[in-house]
Specification:
The complex is a heterodimer of chains A (253) and B (447).
Chain A lengths: L2 E10 L2 E11 L4 E5 L6 H9 L5 E9 L2 E2 L5 H7 L1 E4 L6 E5 H15 L7 H15 L9 E2 L5 H15 L3 E5 L7 H14 L5 E5 L3 H6 L4 E6 L2 E6 L2 H9 L2 H10 L1
Parallel strand pairs in A: 3-10, 3-11, 6-9, 9-10
Antiparallel strand pairs in A: 1-2, 1-4, 4-5, 7-8, 11-12
Chain B lengths: L2 H11 L7 H17 L45 E6 L2 E2 L5 E3 L5 E4 H7 L1 H10 L7 H9 L4 E5 L9 E7 L5 E11 L4 E10 L5 E11 L4 E9 L4 E11 L4 E10 L2 E10 L5 E10 L4 E10 L5 E10 L4 E10 L7 E10 L5 E10 L5 E9 L3 H9 L4 H17 L5 H15 L22
Parallel strand pairs in B: 1-6, 5-7, 6-8, 7-9, 8-10, 9-11, 10-12, 11-13, 12-14, 13-15, 14-16, 15-17, 16-18, 17-19, 18-20
Antiparallel strand pairs in B: 1-2, 3-4, 4-5
Helix pairs in contact in B: 2-5, 3-4, 6-7, 7-8
Classes of the chains: A alpha/beta (253), B alpha/beta (447).
The structure holds adenosine-5'-triphosphate (ATP) and magnesium ion (MG).
C-alpha cells in the first residue's frame, strides 16, 4: 500500500475536526474525496502534508509503511507527498525558478541524487511545460504574485509535474477555473499519473471527475469517511446532494 | 566613564596645533558649544530609544598609529574602477593626500585641502552655523583629525566613482572623528562609495559628520557600506543641502556593527529638487542599528522618497525615526516615507516612528510602517515543496532585502553587495577582519 491513513483523529485550537479517518490508497489509483463544506477535507490534506498547528490525538499516516507523523513538512515532501493548495500562496520577491530549483535540489539531495545544474533544470522546465501544456511564463516572476486564480491553479499543476511526487493531493484544484482551464488542469494531472504514483482529488464537482476518472470516491462527513464507492457515487451526489448522506449517518447514530 | 567625564576629557584632546588661527577659534567655539549642550540623553526626542548612551561608558584614546592598519588595497572594489581614498586612525593613507583629478576636480584629504585651498575650505567649514550643531557635531568640529574633501566644479561630470574607505583603528577605546565635505557646483555630477570598517575586535567609536552641498541641477549618488565588529560603534551624520533641480540618491547597507547610527538631514532649498534614500540594516546578536531621517521641504515642487528596511534577529534592536517637515511655502511637495521591518525572534526589537509634519495644503505625502515576522503561510508553502525551513526562511529574507540591493545601479557593486547580503543572511559574513569585500564568489545552493 502506498498511503494508509489509520483511525486519524485530529483537531486545532481545541476543536475536534477529524474523528477517525481511514483511507487506503494503492499505487496507480485515483481517489476522490467529496463532502459538504467544513467537514475537514482541507484539514485532512493539511495534516498529511504536515502543516504546523494541528493536534493529532490518535491514529497514523503511513507512506510505504513509514509513518509521516514525526516528519517536518519538507521531509514529507521529499518522501513524495505533494499538496496542491486550495489557495496557493503568493511569495513576493522569490522567483519561480529559484523556488522550484531549491525544491527540486533539496529533494534530490534527500534522495541521494546529485543536484540539477542550471542547464538540466531549464531542460526539465521545458519538458514539463510541454508535457502538461502549461507555460511557466512566470519563470522569472515571483511565485504566484499577481497571478489570477486560474493561473495559480495551473501553476500548482506545473509544480506537480516538476516535482514528480508519489502521492499528489489536490485540494479543490478545479475551483475558480473556466472550462478551458479545467480541461488543461485535468489533462495535466492525468499526464502526471503513472503506475507508481497515486492521485487524491478533493472536489465538490462531478465535472472534474469526468476528466480525472477516480477509482474510488469517498465521502467525508462529520470528520469521518462515511461512504466509499466507485465513480457512480459522485453522480449520485450530483443528483441528490448531501441530505441523504446526512440522514443516513444520523440514522446510524 | 560617565557623561561628565566624557565631556571633561574633551579638553585633554583639544590641541589645535598648527592650524590657521581662525580654525583654532572655530574648534574652541565648537567645544564650548558641546559643553553648553551637554551630552544627549534618551529623554530627548532625537535620541529616544537610541543606544548611543553606551558610547559614554568608555575612556577614549586619541587616534594612534602604532600598528599598521589594514592594507587599503584589500578593500577596493577593483571591478568598479574606482578612485580609492583610504583613511585609518583618523588620517588619510596616501603619499598624495590631495589629488587633482580631471577638469579641476579636487579630491582627497580635508586637512591637505585646508592648506592648499584655505579660503574654499574655511568658507565651507564656517557655513553651517555653530548654533545649529548638535552635541556630536560640535564635538566632531572640535576634534576632527581629517576627512574626505571633494570639490566638483561647474558642469563637470566625475568620470569614476570615488571609494572612500574608513577603517576604525586597531587600538583599544579609539575615538575617531572625521569630517567629510562634498561640494558639487551647478550641473556637476558625482558618485561616492563610503565604506566604514573596523580592523580589530577592540571597542572603538567612529563619528563622522558629512556635509554635502548639491548645486543647481547637480546630481549626486552616495552609496554606503558599513561592516564593523560587534564591539565598534559608528555614528554618521549626513547633512545635505539641495539647490533647484538637483538630484540626490543615497543608499546605505548596514551589515554588522555594535552600534550603527545614521542620521540624514536634508534641506531642500531650491525648487524642483529631488531626493531618495534607501536603507537596509541587517542586525543580529546584540547589535543596534538606527536610522534617523529628517527631510525639510522649504520650497515648492520638491520630491522626497525614503524606504528603510530592517531585519532584526536574535536580541538585536532596530530603530527608525523619520520626520518629513513641509514648510508653508512648499506647495506641490511630494513626499513618501516607508519603513518595513522583519523581526525574527521574541527578543529582537524594532521601533519604527515615521512622522509627517505638513504646513502646506497642496501636497502629496504618504507614509507607512510595518513590523512583522516571516509569513507562516509562505513558509509552509515552500516547505511543502521540499525546501527546508532554514532555506525557506533564507529565501524569504533575501526576497525582502532584494529590492534594496536591486536599486544599486553600478553593476559590479550590486553583485558584490548582493553576495555580501546573502552571506550575511546565512550568518557567514563576519566584520571586515577577513576582508569580505574582496572575497571570491562562492557557489550557492539556494541563494
Ligand atoms: N485554524 C482553525 N481553527 C479553528 N477551526 C478551524 C481551523 N481551520 C479549520 N477549522 C474548522 O475546521 C472545519 C473543517 O475545515 P476544512 O477547511 O478542513 O473544511 P473543508 O472540508 O475543506 O471545507 P470546504 O469544502 O469549504 O473547503 C471547519 O469547521 C473549519 O471552520
Ligand atoms: Mg477545503
Amino acid at each position: 500500500m502506498l498511503l494508509e491513513i489509520k483511525d486519524l483523529c485530529a483537531g486545532i485550537n481545541g476543536k475536534e475536526i477529524l474523528k477517525g479517518v481511514n483511507l487506503q490508497i494503492n499505487k496507480g489509483e485515483v481517489h476522490a474525496i467529496m463532502g459538504p463544506n467544513g467537514t475537514g477535507k482541507s484539514t485532512l490534506a493539511s495534516i498529511i502534508a504536515g502543516r504546523p498547528g494541528y493536534d493529532i490525538t490518535r491514529g497514523d499516516i503511513l507512506l510505504n509503511g513509514k509513518s509521516l507523523l514525526g516528519m517536518p513538512p519538507e521531509q514529507r515532501a521529499q518522501e513524495g507527498i505533494f499538496l496542491g493548495f486550495q489557495y496557493p500562496v503568493e511569495i513576493p520577491g522569490v522567483s519561480m525558478a529559484s523556488f522550484l530549483r531549491a525544491a527540486i535540489n533539496e529533494t534530490r539531495r534527500y534522495r541521494g541524487q546529485l543536484p540539477l545544474g542550471a542547464v538540466a533544470f531549464a531542460r526539465q522546465m521545458k519538458e514539463k511545460e510541454e508535457m502538461v501544456e502549461i507555460k511557466a511564463k512566470m519563470k522569472n516572476r515571483s511565485v504566484n504574485e499577481g497571478f489570477s486564480g486560474g493561473e495559480k491553479k495551473k501553476n500548482e499543476i506545473f509544480q506537480l509535474a516538476m516535482l514528480e511526487p508519489k502521492v499528489a493531493i489536490l485540494d479543490e484544484t478545479d475551483s475558480g477555473l473556466d472550462i478551458d482551464a479545467l480541461r488543461i488542469v485535468a489533462g495535466g494531472v492525468n499526464k502526471c499519473k503513472t503506475e507508481e504514483n497515486a492521485t487524491v482529488v478533493i472536489t465538490h464537482y462531478q465535472r472534474l471527475l469526468e476528466y480525472i476518472v477516480p477509482n474510488y470516491v469517498h465521502i467525508l462527513y462529520g470528520g469521518r469517511v462515511v461512504k466509499t464507492g466507485g465513480r457512480e457515487l459522485s453522480l449520485e451526489l450530483e443528483e441528490k446532494g448531501y441530505d441523504w448522506i446526512k440522514a443516513q449517518v444520523e440514522g446510524e447514530e | 566613564m560617565s557623561a561628565e567625564k566624557f565631556l571633561a576629557s574633551l579638553e585633554r584632546w583639544f590641541q589645535p596645533g598648527s592650524e590657521p588661527p581662525e580654525m583654532g577659534a572655530l574648534r574652541r567655539a565648537a567645544l564650548e558649544r558641546a559643553h553648553a549642550l551637554g551630552v544627549p540623553t534618551p529623554k530627548m526626542e532625537r535620541w529616544r530609544q537610541s543606544g548611543v548612551a553606551n558610547v559614554f561608558e568608555h575612556n577614549y584614546n586619541l587616534p594612534k598609529r602604532d600598528r599598521l592598519p589594514m592594507s587599503p588595497g584589500r578593500c577596493q572594489l577593483d571591478a568598479m574602477a574606482t578612485t580609492a581614498m583610504h583613511f585609518s586612525a583618523g588620517k588619510i593613507e596616501s603619499a598624495q593626500p590631495l589629488q587633482r583629478l580631471q577638469d579641476g576636480v579636487i579630491a582627497g584629504s580635508l586637512r591637505a585641502a585646508m592648506k592648499e585651498e584655505p579660503e574654499l575650505v574655511q568658507r565651507l567649514l564656517a557655513e553651517r552655523g555653530l548654533d545649529k550643531m548638535g552635541f556630536f557635531n560640535a564635538v566632531n568640529m572640535a576634534l576632527f583629525t581629517d576627512g574626505f574633501f571633494l570639490h566638483v566644479p561647474k558642469n563637470v561630470v566625475l568620470a569614476r566613482p570615488i571609494q572612500v574607505i574608513h577603517v576604525l583603528g586597531e587600538y583599544r577605546d579609539a575615538l575617531e572623528n572625521l569630517r567629510n565635505f562634498v561640494v558639487l557646483e551647478e550641473g556637476a555630477e558625482a558618485t561616492l562609495l563610503f565604506c566604514d570598517h573596523s580592523s580589530g575586535r577592540e571597542y572603538g567609536f567612529a563619528s563622522s559628520v558629512n556635509q554635502f552641498q548639491i548645486g543647481p541641477g547637480a546630481g549626486f549618488k552616495l552609496y554606503r557600506v558599513q561592516n564593523l565588529s560587534d564591539e565598534a560603534a559608528c555614528f554618521h551624520q549626513d547633512f545635505f543641502t539641495q539647490q533647484e533641480n538637483s538630484r540626490l540618491f543615497s543608499h546605505t547597507i548596514g551589515f554588522n556593527g555594535g552600534l550603527l547610527r545614521g542620521e540624514t538631514h536634508v534641506d531642500l532649498q531650491g525648487k524642483g529638487a529631488d531626493c531618495e534614500f534607501v536603507g537596509l540594516s541587517l542586525s543580529s546578536r546584540g547589535q543596534r542599528m538606527e536610522n534617523f531621517v529628517k527631510v525639510e521641504h522649504q520650497v515648492p515642487h520638491c520630491t522626497s522618497r525614503e524606504v528603510f528596511k530592517n531585519i532584526v534577529d536574535d536580541y538585536a534592536r532596530g530603530l527608525f525615526n523619520g520626520h518629513v517637515l513641509v514648510h508653508p511655502d512648499a506647495q506641490k511637495t511630494e513626499a513618501y516615507q516607508n519603513n518595513s521591518n522583519i523581526v525574527l525572534t521574541d527578543k529582537a526589537k524594532m521601533s519604527s516612528r515615521p512622522f509627517l509634519e505638513i504646513y502646506a495644503d497642496d501636497v502629496k505625502c504618504s507614509h507607512g510602517s510595518s513590523v512583522g515576522q516571516l509569513d507562516d503561510e509562505a513558509l509552509f508553502y515552500m516547505r511543502q515543496r521540499g525546501i527546508s525551513e532554514e532555506n525557506a526562511r533564507l529565501l524569504l529574507l533575501y526576497a525582502f532585502a532584494a529590492d534594496v540591493i536591486n536599486q544599486i545601479d553600478i553593476e559590479p557593486l550590486r553583485r558584490q553587495l548582493d553576495d555580501m547580503v546573502k552571506k550575511r543572511l546565512r550568518g557567514e559574513l563576519p566584520s571586515c577582519e577577513d576582508c569580505v569585500l574582496s572575497c571570491s564568489q562562492p557557489e550557492f545552493e539556494v541563494l
